[in-house]
UniProtKB/TrEMBL annotation:
GO terms for cellular component: chromosome; cytoplasm; nucleus. Its main location: nucleus. It comes from Rhinopithecus roxellana (Golden snub-nosed monkey). This is DNA 3'-5' helicase. Its EC number is 5.6.2.4. GO terms for biological process: DNA replication; double-strand break repair via homologous recombination; telomere maintenance. InterPro entries: DEAD/DEAH_box_helicase_dom, DNA_helicase_ATP-dep_RecQ, Helicase_ATP-bd, Helicase_C-like, P-loop_NTPase. The lineage of its organism: Eukaryota, Metazoa, Chordata, Craniata, Vertebrata. The gene is RECQL4.
């Protein structure tokens, strides 16, 4: 008999394991940032030959210039650059065609059609021509087109024509790093393209930039991080003028979208303010009317955002849904039925990685015998393989290649598969379980039948809504408590002691700082629905630069980084514009001089920030004679009323000077290192207590509304599919039911056409209205739940849980302070009450916590 064990592996060692999990996470994060984090170690020895008498720049070992950069992470210490100024008018691009007298687009000229042919197309597809002509007339445009309807042509063609007229650059922002290299190599030869992303080495990056500077590149593809990250692009004065900027997956820009990414807002701002871009092309495959409207405002698109192009689901797709008890068996039956038996290329989507492996193995064992060798004596195809983001890159590539080349019949995948998949003859897309949103469903099924031939899509829905539970977890993972919101607000708006005399113009000029300027035209401030945007009282405080160290803040609030950034974004988007969010930055500085204290003193004469820092140091600790200094840059900067960016540049410049006779730039041997990543923002310090309360209420209300909205969306998704579902897959085996397929398409069409998404009903926040689909009645479980909560708390007396933290563990949701790697090992509690309402659990846990405290 098997021994029953509750704890996997060794017994729980909370703190140690948690610490380890943290370390791993931050190491990984460092890597994503292009080598930051763990590599920013301070070594007293030369890192080239490990000797202690010199640093790498003076290392006698012959190494290439490239390798001698003492600050390993390239992005942290950008080479000294002139201050990027406001782009001059000369660099702004004029449109290729002018508008008619009443603002109408010009008739499409012959050269556009010629270019179209040159790019390998015979004719425009719906929506393309208008978008292309708008961009060529210099008008910002939002284009909502289903996947595979030819969005990329809409930037390729204008890029080609603009570049043909005069040397210029088209920027394409795309979050899909894995696709970039493919996209670049897939472009027609007349269009020269390059990409920059975090997966590149410094050398590769430099060589790309070299080509860009020389105007040898027409299209430059960037990830959002590569554009707004610490390194960024060289100043516009060194680049050819930007014809226009194309932003892919532009729905991420909207706080109302199903996939809001705060860094997209900064993308827009950097493009507009640093790069001088006025003409934007926003591309997305999935946006509701409300999302589209919001995005249009951000891009300053002047027309009513129409959902141009065809309906969300093309007519050649046949949709069906069934609710089977045994999904695995039903899947096998369906694939062997008449409708699917002879279909050649099939994608099956699962919500969990484990399922992809399991289902692929199942298909291989159960269907392979029936298959036999391929027709015409070809080598038999592989039946099925799994694909998910947890697999290594090479393996994923292999599976994708095999599928593309027709050597693999079925891919069993998570949503990670299929973005940018360029195969027109996928014949079937199946879903095992509810997709997380209509957007994701439409995008997935849109991968089938792009050649216009009939294709089949089937969804297996769990009859009791069991799959809703899994999806709800993701919603609750982003929620937070009022207390955490309050802590954040306290950190963001600490009271200042300054009487805030505005800095004199000379002072501003001396630091070369970029001043706080209004970021949004007034109409954009209206997006919260407040039409009379109150400008707020006239502040005496002009605002201070502040930095919240990311790691510390994440732990203090027990919220993921992205969630904190989202809250900060809400404050910025608020009509009162409570703060200005700046790019995350490293704040801790360590400066070491190989020449000892004397050199440090000498440098201070050249560099006011260093002088100020040494002076402050002297007050605290009169001891002399150090050759290195460490300090918090933001404190220094704020105490002196300077700008962080310019101070950082000034410090970086200490690493270089000029040979007096020849004027050649050379290294001084001084080592300047920056560590400690922080949220960076500018906020006033004179908010009243009432204002802070008001901000807390606003933020908390916003978080709750978002949660309600997400839950309501999920329920609506479930109900829509449920309403057209057959009780079993039997009726779907042979022919499709056109009536139900059409009904589902209508439901989807309605969803995308709606302007307002009203969260109807309580949205799962209350359990008074009876349980949600997939949930049990709390009353039946209450005693047992309370008992388990008490036991859980009893076993961990040293932890300070909140009600939410306990509920998360019972729902199997990891958070920064209570990670899944640690708490997921204790199977007695982890995920135990997934069948109960999350908010009911929070309430019970809070009550029990109060009991314990008494
Ligand atoms: Zn102040």
């Amino acid at each position: 008999m098997k021994q029953k064990r509750y704890v996997r592996g060794r017994a729980l060692r909370g703190r140690l394991l948690r610490k380890q999990a943290w370390k791993q996470k931050w190491r990984k994060k460092g890597e994503c940032f292009g080598g930051g984090g763990a590599t920013v170690t301070i070594k007293e020895s030369c890192f080239l030959n490990e000797q202690f008498d010199h640093w790498a720049p003076q290392c006698p070992q012959p190494v290439s210039e490239e390798d001698t950069d003492p600050a390993g992470p390239e992005l942290l210490v950008p080479a000294p650059q002139p201050v990027p100024g406001v782009p001059s008018l000369a660099s702004t691009m004029l449109p290729l065609y002018s508008l008619g007298p009443s603002g109408q687009l010009a008739e499409t000229p012959a050269e556009v059609f010629q270019a179209l042919e040159q790019l390998g197309h015979q004719a425009f597809r719906p929506g393309q021509e208008r978008a292309v002509m708008r961009i060529l007339s210099g008008i910002s445009t939002l284009l909502v087109l289903p996947t595979g309807a030819g969005k990329s042509l809409c930037y390729q063609l204008p890029a080609l024509l603009y570049a043909r007229r005069s040397p210029c650059l088209t920027l394409v922002i795309s979050p899909l790093l894995s696709l970039m290299d493919d996209q670049v190599s897939g472009l027609p030869p007349c269009l020269k393209a390059a990409c920059i992303h975090s997966g590149m080495t410094r050398k590769q990056r430099e060589s790309v930039l070299q080509k860009v500077r020389a105007a040898q590149v027409h299209v430059l593809m960037l990830t959002p991080e590569a554009l707004v990250g610490a390194g960024g692009l060289p100043p516009t004065t060194q680049l050819p003028p930007v014809a226009f900027a194309c932003i892919d997956e532009v729905h991420c820009l909207s706080q109302w979208s199903h996939n809001f990414r705060p860094c997209y807002l900064r993308v827009c701002r950097v493009l507009r303010e640093r790069m001088g871009v006025h003409c934007f092309l926003g591309l997305t495959a999935t946006a509701t009317r409300r999302t589209a409207g919001d995005v249009a405002q951000h891009l300053a698109v002047d027309e009513e955002p129409g959902l141009h192009g065809p309906a969300p689901v093309p007519a050649n797709l046949h949709l069906s849904v069934s609710m089977d008890r045994d999904t695995d068996q039903a899947l096998l039956t369906l694939l062997q039925g008449e409708r699917f038996r002879n279909l050649d290329s099939i994608i099956i989507y699962c919500n969990r990685r484990e399922d992809t492996e399991r289902i692929a193995a199942l298909l291989r064992t159960c269907l392979h015998a029936a298959q036999g060798p391929g027709p015409g004596g070809r080598a038999p195809k592989t039946m099925a393989e799994a694909y998910h983001a947890g697999m290594c890159g090479r393996e994923r590539q292999r599976v994708q290649q095999a599928f593309m080349q027709g050597q693999l019949r079925v891919v069993v995948a998570t949503v990670a598969f299929g973005m940018g998949l360029d195969r027109p003859d996928v014949r079937a897309v199946l879903h095992l379980g509810l997709p997380p949103s209509f957007e994701s469903y439409v995008q997935a099924v849109g991968r089938a039948g792009r050649d216009g031939q009939p294709a089949h899509c089937h969804l297996f829905l769990q009859p009791q809504g069991e799959d809703l539970r899994e999806l709800r977890r993701h919603v609750h993972a982003n929620g937070t408590d009022f207390l955490a919101v309050k802590r954040l607000v306290q950190r963001v708006f600490p009271a200042c002691t300054c009487t805030c005399t505005r800095p004199s113009p000379e002072q501003e000029g001396a630091m070369g700082g970029e001043r706080l300027v209004p970021k949004y035209p007034p109409e954009e401030a209206e997006q919260l629905g407040v039409h009379q945007a109150a400008p707020g009282p006239r502040r005496t405080c002009v605002g201070h630069e502040r930095a919240l160290p990311v790691q510390l803040t994440v732990q203090a609030l027990d919220m993921p980084e992205e969630a904190i950034e989202t809250l900060l974004c809400y404050l910025e988007l608020h009509p009162c514009h409570w703060l200005e969010l700046l790019a995350t930055t490293y704040i801790h500085c360590r400066l070491s001089c190989p020449g000892g204290p004397a050199q440090l003193q000498a440098l201070a004469h050249r560099c006011p920030p260093l002088a100020a820092c040494l002076a402050q140091r002297l007050l605290e600790d009169p001891g002399q004679g150090s050759s290195s200094v460490e300090f918090d840059m933001v404190k220094l900067v704020d105490s002196m009323g300077w700008e962080l960016a310019s101070v950082r540049r000034a410090l970086c410049q200490l690493q270089w000077d000029h040979e007096p006779r020849t004027g050649v730039r050379r290294r001084t041997g001084v080592l300047v290192e920056f560590t400690e990543l922080a949220f960076h923002l500018r906020s006033p310090g004179d908010l009243t207590a009432e204002e802070k309360d008001q901000i807390c209420d606003f933020l908390y209300g916003r978080v709750q509304a978002r949660e309600r909205q997400a839950l309501a969306r999920l329920r609506r998704t479930f109900q829509a599919f449920h309403s057209v579902a057959f009780p079993s897959c039997g009726p779907c085996l042979e022919q499709q039911d056109d009536e139900r397929s059409t009904r589902l398409k209508d439901l989807l069409g309605c969803y995308f056409e709606e302007v307002e998404e009203e969260a109807q009903g309580p949205g799962g926040m209350e359990d008074t209205q009876g349980p949600e689909p997939g949930q049990a009645r709390l009353q039946d479980w209450e005693d047992q739940v309370r008992c388990d909560i008490r036991q859980f708390l009893f076993l961990r007396p040293e932890e300070k849980f909140s009600g939410r933290a306990v509920a998360r563990i019972f729902h199997g949701i990891g958070s920064p302070c209570y990670p899944a790697q640690v708490y997921g090992q204790d199977r007695r509690f982890w995920r135990k009450y997934l069948n109960l309402s999350f908010h009911a659990l929070v309430r019970l846990a809070t009550e029990e916590l109060l009991q314990v405290a008494r």
